[in-house]
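Hey, can you fold this one?
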Amino acid sequence: MQRTNSLHIGVLLAFAILTMGAMASSRANLAVVSRADLCVTEGGIDELSGNRLSVTVPKMRAYLNASTPQVVEAHFTYLGSTGNEARLGSGELRRQFGLKLRAQDACNLVYAMWRIEPQSKLVVSVKTNPGQHTSAECGNRGYRNIKPSRSKPVPLLREGDTHDLRAEMNADEIKVFADNVLVWEGSVGSEALAFDGPVGIRSDNARLQLQLRAPHPTDAQRGQGSACRSGPGESE
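Sure. Predicted structure:
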């Protein structure tokens, strides 16, 4: 029995070491994203010293100007409400910050959102509207929250707290990490593979300072970035 237990513990330790090594390798391939690397489709982002970004507006939407592997990480400090809070298209008042994946346009993309208020939780959702590309066409239609195969609660965010949020998408599988702890894992389904686009960020009514990191483009992705598309029609 003792030998069996020792073998079981050894297997668990080996798995943990391999998992930590894979996470470290994934993070080592990330580079800091500057304000110049972002297309802001709604709201505003200011650049601070130390490669940090500042968000003080009620609604912020942005994506990278380059195609990269579908990994994005934010090291962020939550500074409370922006004031003059804006409601979502559904009419709900929510405070949240999150990451975007495969952000083709305002109507087709994947979100990993850290909801702060009125309820603290991590939600992954797909917004898909085939044949539609602007907010005038799809509005707030086409959202579907995805049920994870496994998940853990995210920390309760308080004003002044600093955390890491990372999302990784491989085919239709997504993993989301909060402070290097896996908090969401699951499949978003084949409909999320019907479109493609860069990674990005989004916030609603949350004042933030952050450093954003994303991978370098692969050889096949170099030069694939599209021109910045901003304006009311591009805001999701």
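The mean pLDDT is 89. Let me know if you want another pass with a different chain boundary.
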